[in-house]
Structure formats: structure tokens, C-alpha cells
Amino acid sequence: MCENRAEPMPSKAKTKLEAAQRPARAAAKKAAKAPAKRSGGRRATPRGTRKASASPTNAKPKLLSGGNPQIPKGDGDAPVQAYIAAMPGWKRECGRRIDAFIERTVPHVRKAVRWNSPFYGIEGRGWFLGLHCFTHYVQVTFLRGTSLRPVPPGPSKHPHVRYLNIREEDAFDEKLFGTWIEQAVELPGDPLF
Fold first, then answer.
1. Which of 2, 84, 110, 154 is deepest in the core (most CB within 10 A)?
2. Greater pLDDT, 27 or 67
3. Complete domains list, the chain, with CATH
4. Quick check: 23 pLDDT over 60?
5. Model pTM greater than 0.85?
6. Phi/psi class of residue 56: alpha, beta or left (left: φ > 0; alpha: ψ in -120 to 50)?
7. Interacting residues of 114 by C-beta distance below 8 A, sequence separation 6+
8. Averaged over 140-168, what is the pLDDT?
């Protein structure tokens, strides 16, 4: 009868085989741990393809003092909508209402987030309005507010700026707000923002 047992490998041959395999194993381990190399001066991973858990867009925005959302600076509707979505409580609906009203009144409005606040303006003419959350109210900033009639009620240290502070219990006067928006669009905007 013939037995089908494997013969044990002589120790010298076994040692030579292991020694030959060691560099290949070490290289495979190192490659698995090392990040992808850059080639040709370009990123190995295209922008915007980070893991979902590490993406800042998936994280809930931090609320600063007074409940003001911390939103990165950006142009267009997306950062403004992110700001509005992050507004706490009743302020979110107030922000949506103001944003929708401005879009209806000024169809070609330009939007951006600067200094953790949405701004509205006209391309090439500057900004005419900003929003900001505070603890007890949403502040609408008319950047040329002293030129509006009637002048918005909130004074400012800046000579041209006037504020409208909207509290939860306040009634929203759409007619007066629309008048202010229509006037503000016709004025030269504030290029500083």
C-alpha cells in the first residue's frame, strides 16, 4: 500500500522559501497601509469623493451664539438653503418665508453666505439685504436702509444700514416688506459684502 503523506520539508529549504517570501509580504503590508501616491501633480482622489462619515456636508452645522448657523462662505442658492435649513425652531420657517418672498420679488437675485449670514444682491450692483439669527429674533439687514421709505425701524451704527428684527410673535407685513425690497433693489448695493 502506498501512503499519500507529504514529506516534511528539510529545514534549510523551508528557511530559504520563507526568506524569499518575506519581502513580498512586507511590500504587500506596506502598500495596504500607505495612502495612494499622487501622480503627475494631481490628487489621487478627486475632490468631493471623501468618505460619507468624514464629509462636512453630512455633519449638522454648528450653531453659534444666538442660534446662528455656522455655514461656510459660498455663492449661490445652496449655501443659503443650508443656512436656512440649519436655523433653529421657528426661525427656520421665517427664513424660508423671507427667502421665497425675495425670490418672487426679485427673480434674478444673487445669493451668497458671508460671515455666517445669507446675503441677497444684484449681479454687478452689490448686496441689498442680509439675514442673521439672534437668540430671540431674526434680523433682516437693509444695507441702504436709510434710503428706504418708510425707513425700517432698527437703527445701526453704520450710517446707511437699518434693521428689521422679526420675533416669533410678530406679524409679518408682506406689503411693507415687499415695498422695502423693491426700493432696495433699485438702490446701489453695498460692494463691501
1. 84
2. 67
3. 61-186 (3.90.1150.200)
4. yes
5. no
6. alpha
7. 73, 193
8. 95
